[in-house]
Amino acid sequence: MEKIELQSPIAVANFIIEVANEKENPVTNLKLQKVLFFLQGYCLAKYNSPLIDGNFSKWQYGPVEEEVYQEFKYFGASPINSKSTQLRIDSGKIEFYCEEISMSDNLLNKIKEIVEQIIKKEPWQLVRLTHDDPSWKNYEDKIRNRTAEDYTNEEIKDCFKANQEVLGV
Would the pTM of this model clear 0.90, i.e. be above it? Predict the structure, then answer.
């Protein structure tokens, strides 16, 4: 079994946005967050390793990877129609840079298949799946008071496993 290398949250978000737009099923920030979360759960369950080098916070509408949220929040509830690009200076030249996933084609194709399945679900269905899970449900008071701890990898993996059939993966 191949080993998963940690990827930046923005690189994975860019990949999801690209796949969603190719499938003419663009994601909102809300849906992007849930796809990221379940994709992380898939990698934890299948490869016993996280994909995303980031943390998921427990928020009112479910799991949120804050770096990705901040990057795409200006889209509001609208579909995200473009990947994150940054300006950088390289050898005195200013250029646009887009973070991309770096992994084998085999793994990339498998990840793409999983994303294609999850994006078929409606955003509020994905929210319900996370809210019905003990990893969110048992902390609802703390979440509302903004005192809940971040998700653990074990919670993310268990939530994915509990919803794997519903997600179609």
Answer: yes
